Amino acid sequence: MPIMSRGARSDLSSVFSLPSLRSAGAAFWQRAFASDFAWKVGETFATRVFLIGVGVVASVMVARALGPEGRGLYAVAGALAGMGVQFGNLGLHSANTYFAAGNRRLLPRLAGNSLAVSAALGAVAVGALWGIAFLRPDIAPLSGTLLLLTSASIPIGLAYLLLQNLLIGVQEVRAFNRIEIVTRLLSLTLIALAILQGSVSPEALFAAGLAASAVGLARVLRRLWRLAPVIPRPSPDLLRAHLVYGLKSYLACFFAYLVVRFDLLMVQHMLGMRQAGYYSIAASMADLVYLLPSIIGTLLFPKLVARATREEKWRLTAGMSGLVLVMMTGVSGAAALLARPIIRLLFGADFLPAAPAFVLLAIAMIFYGVNNVVSNYLASLAFPWFSVLIWIVVCALNIILNLFWIPAYGIMGASLSSLVCYVLVLVAQVVYCAGWRPGHEN
Prior knowledge:
The chain has 16 helices and no strands. With about 450 residues, the chain is mainly alpha-helical.
């Protein structure tokens, strides 16, 4: 991408100057806690916490009803379905939010594309599962009815994910949260009914969750119909632009995901399963610390896309970055101070060696949280390739640092590597925002 001309750089420098950032931050803070956005963040955070609780209850019920072997089959089916949705979405859920936020009139075509893509990619994933089952039944993880149910869950899960993000794009946050709650509670209820009726098998309990997902998908479609009462029809031209944006988002998220997840694999390989167990606890707790900024980023993104100019986008980004910085400093600081008693209470004294690694990851989440806001700003500018390349570079750097620091510092080395990487990504993206012109502006 070309470097800006001197005149353009001078104009934009006023946006990124310290006085500009201070004024943006001050104006933002005056409105932050009284705004509709703050209420939506609060509602969504409460919803996520509630859903985590529902998930824990469902997991306990399934484990007690099925026992270790049945729970294992149920978990494999869930993992395969989740992988099909995760790797099959191609970043189109982010593209849906981007295009819907930019032009609400695209909703029918975006919904049509989402349904078509879900059917096509779901068919590919299902074909792969059944191909393995027929060609190599000795290595196939599932068979019979459970394989059939898992196959059905992939296109349904894809459609649910893609269409849900259309609701986020048009800022139907309350409807999004309500559908999530109803779907999870229905799943829990159906699982409980199956257990009470004596229909206890991995197939029956997985079918209960699948039925709830289908109901959730129907509710999303009904809500979209109310917003745009037009029959969804695919649009090949829109889909091409959709796929380009989605691919960039997909790659960036994939390599960002690897920064933490690859740490665990390297710890296991270099230090053994015991240390990997400690690090998995630290990483899981860090995920919970990151929950709030992830919600803020999700709800902020459509607002940024809807802003007409880059300056308006940046002022909103600057104010929100300051808010997230303060909030995450408090949350991460409290989590770090309480790490040992929390670990002792939840996991037992045997897992206390995870505490120092978690403290470093909690600090890392401060930078990762602020970076999430900046990343959404760049995503609102049609997702420049820089946002992808920086994560590829940092992912490679993380592996190199781990090769040296894990043997030297144990699991603390893995946490330190993540911290360094998140700091570098934040600095690089802020410098990029200040000094370069994106190829497309909304």
